[in-house]
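A note from the maintainers: we've had questions about how concatenated examples are separated. There is no special marker in the raw files; a new sequence line simply starts the next protein. For clarity in this README we add a label.
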Amino acid sequence: MSETTRDPEPQRTPSTAGTGATATDNGLLRTLDWKGAFWIASGVPALVLFSIGSIAATVGAPSPLVWTVSIIFGLLQSFIWAEIAGLFPSKSGGASVYGAMAWVRYAKPVAPLSVWCNWLAWSPVLTVGSGLAAGYVLTALFPAEATINTWSMTLLPLGFIQDDLEIRLNAQFVIAALFLLLVFALQHGGILRAARVQTVIGLAVLVPLLVVGVVPLITGDIVATNFQPFVPLSGAWDASGWTLFAGGLFLAAWSAYAFETSICYTAEFKNPGRDTVRAILSAGIACLVIYTLVPFAFQGVLGVDRLTQDDIVDGNGVGQAMTVLVGGGPVIANLLIVMLVLALLLTIMTTMAGSSRTLYQGSRDGWLPRFLSRTNQHGAPTRAMWTDLVFNLVLLLLSDYVFVLATSTVCYMIFNFLNLNAGWMHRVDNPDAPRPYRAPTALIAVGTVLAFVNALLLGWGANVWGGGALATGLIAAAIVVPVFYYRHKVVDKGVFPASFSEDLPAENGADGAVELPRRAGVRPYLVLAGGVVVVIIGQLLAAAGS
């Protein structure tokens, strides 16, 4: 594949006087080490609180197993993310950006699809997290029957997409919007300041989560009968039961795989080769502990019946439930509410930092609109951050956050499928490219298998969360195709920016075009066709279990 490139739109290089930072030619600053990236990603363990009730209410007694299997999948996949991130020390934005460079030489629209789906999967964390935080504040300060908690104005019914779905305005929206503006202000000062703030908040969040997971084991409050009978809510491990379990794995992936956000900052690492692998593996180990212990403790102490009640499913009763786990009165309950709000603010900060850099790098590489490729004097991609903010203010108006989460997970599974295959594609096409970290070949093979497992879960489990989830997610993903072609054909006149091919070995063709080697033959096309077939098989299994 031959593509010409040109210099990107001129950008102001941020001043680094007095900061000790290293300036890069992409507007970002090399101020971060792996420990900073770990603390930025420390909001990911709290994502277990987003859907712990929803998954328990859907799967039943095996729900802790769902979380354990899902985080193991995520850890196995992380070795591929670490390797391909090391290939691109000058790019930010995460695994989707690195994987896009494997796919563009075979199918142009697939490359921006990877980047776009990753952003669509991550960005709604801002909506769900701020909405839950607002809900915690309202339930802590006002009785459930208070007017501020019950008032709601319907702006547009959306029942044709999902039952009871609507665009509405209420107090939760107002408070959540204020939380988003607060996080935006903190991120505006650059990644180093954000990392310092998140180090403090992260300690205040990870410790309580660890306490919640460990204390019931020490006190002996885990009740074995709360795991019996160990069958899905359908009553047996039949077609319906396995469909529910697949639905749980599908939704849990959105949280359990998410520590890959720790490699969104490669272009801001002081030492990309060393920091990338340390950041993602340390974040993965932290998530392994939390995602295994917390769901087990919740169910072992509370039981399935409590976890399936409305206040746990919608997240607003999680604080009170945590008080039961550790033992305590109203003071402890209020302290946990404060910590939960901090946990959710931490996840919002993690997400805004990572997802905005995905938009930013996608713009620099020619996938997304050009206006997103700007940074401020602190090296923060503010235009991408504003895009994140406005998009999520719209999503906050939706009445069903679980549907938002399920729809974004559809996009996340598409991204995971494409990028896990990008691991072996980069091995084939760029065998001699410098690799600061080289994953064991066996794990590259395991990741490829997991790509198809994720495709199966996409077809099998998505509509467990609503009949319109899969279709809505696929439509949202497809939006990027015309956006990309407008940027590439109309704005850039068919010429990729210079940053498109940086970091990878390339050759100049006879016409002066940049040529990225293609050695994989027809295998990438067979992978795409196989992915579609596996999704269809998943749909057939879901139909059999409905």
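[label: protein 2]
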Amino acid sequence: MAETTREPEPQRTPNIPDTGGGGIDRGLHRTLDWKGAFWIASGVPALVLFSIGAIAATVGAPSPLVWTVSIIFGLLQSFVWAEIAGLFPSKSGGASVYGAMAWVRYAKPVAPLSVWCNWLAWSPVLTVGSGLAAGYVLTALFPAEATINTWSMTLLPLGFIQEGLEVRLNAQFVIAALFLLLVFGLQHGGILRAARVQTVIGLAVLVPLLVIGVVPLITGDVVAANFAPFVPLSGAWDASGWTLFAGGLFLAAWSAYAFETSICYTAEFRNPGRDTVRAILSAGIACLVIYTLVPFAFQGALGVERLTQDDIVDGNGVGQAMTEIVGGGPVVANLLIVMLVLALLLTIMTTMAGSSRTLYQGSRDGWLPRFLSRTNQHGAPTRAMWTDLGFNLVLLLLSDYVFVLATSTVCYMIFNFLNLNAGWMHRVDNPDAPRPYRAPTALIAIGTVLAFVNALLLGWGANVYGGGALATGLIAAAIVVPVFYYRHKVVDGGVFPPSFSDDLPAENGEAGAVVLPRRAGIRPYLVLGGGVVVVIIGQLLAAAGS
């Protein structure tokens, strides 16, 4: 079918009152196609470098299997995301926003919990990515013993949360903050300009990642002995070994599931029905290749002992490790450092684009504070972007990025549990709603099963990375409940904004309230109760394996 070449008028959001700053809020602009969304999401494959050492140090020889299983889970889940995204061509913000519309009918606080947990999971990529990029720059330019690398000033000890955790100021923080400001400037010009920039950077990153994954296989540098004995670090596939494996799957999910960010831009797609499914499946296939090959090549060429050294676990030695894999001297090493910095900038751009739109749409739909719903003349949600920036400048002051990662993964697993169940809930409650893409029913069922697998991993694997990770993540998730009730009850008078019911059949109730159909009966409540039970079972398994 022929497609029109005339670009549609930018979407307006007249139902959002002016929250200050002057001018007319023109909303998000429909300027993006699926290829642009793919390149925006092209920063996700590089996330494997964030925790490849941490997972190897947790699991041991089976760590490549962890990555393979995790990315397969993510790919199976993506079919659920693709279907529910197609239901909401007018909404931005990704799967959490679309899933929230399933849960709000049954438990109002659960809906903003989904959106909030997704943002808390994604936003710290800005911290981890910019921090690692700053570390690479400092390592490349200055000796390890140089004052600029060793100077650090403790502002607040947080050992009561996690041993060794503190708020500190150092050179890494300063350089990382400059990286974040650079990305903010690029994103300020709107999604289309960001996509064009990321197309160039994406090519410069994905090709070297493929080289790293393929070259050792061609040269014969992958050594079978580096996978033996194929048992966890505990020494056997016993209760302790399976707990370590669960911990690896838990942390890998933060990276391996993350290509769902490619559907954060539904309201900016020129053709949402076509572009949504193409964007997420193409991004998923790219991640399947990278997440399978790169961990296998790293371990096969370097061995578990090298992967578990401190410099790879904290991320700062990944560039040197890549040099060891492909060979070469200082020139190659410096080129790889440049590539890694570009890769990290790409992931930061991907994250700021996606997570800011989650805040923006959460505000438009009445979940989050109203001030986040404003865009600039380019259609960029700048207030949400400033919020992202400020939050991550605070996180950058923390001394342990693996703890930040584990805590944000707690939130990510909560989001995944809720939204995978939203797939069947939308089928039940909105059977006649237009679905540009309808996933096979078997994949919707598999997504539901994986929701409970993720809940099990949440209880079983979170505290492998420190006893405070699960508790801190749950507390961070709960913060949204009073925030939502203040917005909904005090600011909005108990009535959701008009944009809340965009794209779905709805009726007007009393006092102008929107009423969405409820056909699932008690099943959503049984799901919530079952999720809690499964998390507790995971905790019991973790205790047995400790």
